[in-house]
TrEMBL record:
Species the sequence originates in: Kineosporia succinea
Residue span, BP74 N-terminal domain: 2-113
Pfam family, one: BP74_N
InterPro entries reported for this sequence: BP74_N, cAMP-inducible_BP74-like
Source organism, top-level taxon: Bacteria
Protein's UniProt name: BP74 N-terminal domain-containing protein
Coiled-coil spans in chain: none
Length: 114
């Protein structure tokens, strides 16, 4: 298990997410080192549940669904704070199927668990 953080150009703060798959952890580390430059944005299915490692948000990314991408459809793009502010609407017409793909997500660091 490893924790990573991303930021978005469209707003302040960072979003912390968990990865449990060794291949995905390796890919995240390659993105941070600069070895991976194509599929660098974060996408996954969110769950409306707070996690201790990401205390500023009432939702988290399901580690089993996280992938890294180059391009995605617009319907899943949103700012992390906007998702928080409209979480009651998320998963319906807003972010259908609970898939979130912030286009401007940028991995910034691996997080050391407290």
């Amino acid at each position: 298990m490893a924790l990573f953080a991303f930021q978005q150009h469209s707003g302040p703060g960072e979003f912390i997410f968990e990865l449990t798959d060794e291949g995905k952890i390796s890919k995240a580390r390659k993105i941070l080192s600069g070895d991976e430059t194509s599929e660098v944005h974060v996408m996954g299915r969110f769950r409306k549940q707070r996690k201790d490692y990401n205390p500023h948000f009432s939702y988290h990314l399901d580690p089993d669904t996280v992938v890294f991408f180059s391009y995605a459809i617009e319907v899943c793009d949103a700012n992390m704070n906007y998702v928080e502010d409209h979480l009651d609407e998320a998963g319906g017409a807003f972010l259908p199927g609970a898939y979130w793909c912030p286009w401007d997500s940028r991995l910034v660091r691996e997080v050391t668990p407290a």
